[in-house]
Amino acid sequence: xxxxxxxxxxxxxxxxxxxxxxxxxxxxxxxxxxxxxxxxxxxxxxxxxxxxxxxxxxxxxxxxxxxxxxxxxxxxxxxxxxxxxxxxxxxxxxxxxxxxxxxxxxxxxxxxxxxxxxxxxxxxxxxxxxxxxxxxxxxxxxxxxxxxxxxxxxxxxxxxxxxxxxxxxxxxxxxxxxxxxxxxxxxxxxxxxxxxxxxxxxxxxxxxxxxxxxxxxxxxxxxxxxxxxxx
Length: 231
Prior knowledge:
single chain, mainly beta, 6-stranded antiparallel beta sheet, 13 strands, about 10% helix, disordered N terminus
């Protein structure tokens, strides 16, 4: 049992997790480095989910510094991935959910350089409604067409197993450095460092979907990336 206002229900498949968050929605809008949030009744087929997208690392770090500061020193109790039940694999378009005692943190990447971090917005007790129609918008909750059978699964990736139970020590945003003067940086990853010892988890942009790694260091040449400290 993790976080605030959570309860469990029977899982709908082997290894699936059903945990309810508080379901609070953040207002969407456009600011410095912030494309508009998704519209409709929920983003990514998730009711109540209102991601606010950032494409600049400093803006993303500033927006969430206060919340991450409250989590420093807390252990990661569990983590959940959106799971394709028919293919029995991670559906990497959906958010990666990290469960701490005080909050669930939901991290999502899309397109080439956009990232959204939300807090306690995803209620994992509610069904997911993701249209299987290729032309359907990402935020569509239209249930008239064929639906992918999706659920939430606890764990589901070796990188999550390695950090489970460890205490959060540091959070960074990683940007790729680009040669183009009109676009000097690209938002690449949210990096969490846990004790003991230094164990790194990065939720990164894997070209319009999420990627996960627990590699000890950023997988890019020196001078091609930079870290922006969040906490």
